[in-house]
Specification:
Blueprint: E1 3-8, E2 11-19, E3 24-28, E4 33-43, E5 51-56, E6 62-68, E7 71-77, E8 84-88, E9 91-92, E10 95-96, E11 102-113, E12 117-119, E13 129-138, H1 144-153, E14 164-166, E15 175-176, E16 186-189
Antiparallel strand pairs: 1-2, 2-13, 3-12, 3-16, 4-11, 4-13, 5-6, 5-12, 6-7, 7-10, 8-9, 8-11, 13-14, 15-16
């Protein structure tokens, strides 16, 4: 099940909490060449040390949050040969702190295979603690304006055609329904 949180004043949503021990979600092979990854994330209990594996496309190309003193740094690993732009809350950047949700968008000029898609761990290892919702993938390279729209409008719409979109506000049990018809759902393991 998902937990409730405030997205913006007057708007409630739901998120998935990964406890860092045995929680993860997987959708397997999405048969998709990903150029944009977007999500809302909140570190849990501070960013004191270590690494949180947020999104893993295929065991080689992934997004992690690394502790940098009292803040965290959104980092991409793999994505060989690509020009990567990272956005936090609609602006180019990669630094976040704790105790609030951030909209994070990673845009690549090259598509990467989502052949073993996972949230919350890296290729079967390294479970991480954080909260996340509104996970989206696109085979398009988003423009800066589209990223701003994603941050501003979020779950209400942003004029982008998404290839996969797991909202997390309509979840129950162990399945995260993909809002894009005919696309794979997430299978949750130990998510609260």
């Amino acid at each position: 099940p998902a937990r409730s949180h405030l997205i913006r004043a007057g708007q409630r949503g739901r998120d998935w909490h990964y406890d860092g021990t045995d929680d993860y979600s997987t959708a397997g092979d999405l048969s998709l060449s990903v150029k944009t990854i977007a999500f809302r994330v909140k570190p849990v209990d501070g960013i004191a040390s270590g690494t949180a594996y947020l999104i893993d496309l295929n065991g080689t190309d992934y997004i992690k949050l690394s502790a940098q003193g009292l803040t965290g740094l959104i980092q991409t690993v793999g994505f060989s040969g690509a020009a990567i732009t990272k956005y936090v809350d609609g602006s180019v950047g990669a630094v976040i702190s704790d105790d609030k949700f951030y909209s994070v968008v990673v845009v690549s000029d090259t598509g990467f295979s989502a052949s073993d898609f996972e949230i919350g761990r890296l290729s079967g290892t390294g479970n991480s603690e954080f909260e996340i919702f509104d996970v989206r993938l696109s085979d398009q390279e988003l423009t800066a304006g589209q990223v701003t729209n994603y941050h501003t409008f979020g779950v209400s719409g942003d004029a982008v055609t998404w290839s996969d979109w797991w909202k997390s506000d309509d979840q129950s049990g162990v399945i995260g329904r993909n809002t894009i018809g005919g696309r794979p759902s997430l299978t949750h393991t130990n998510i609260t």
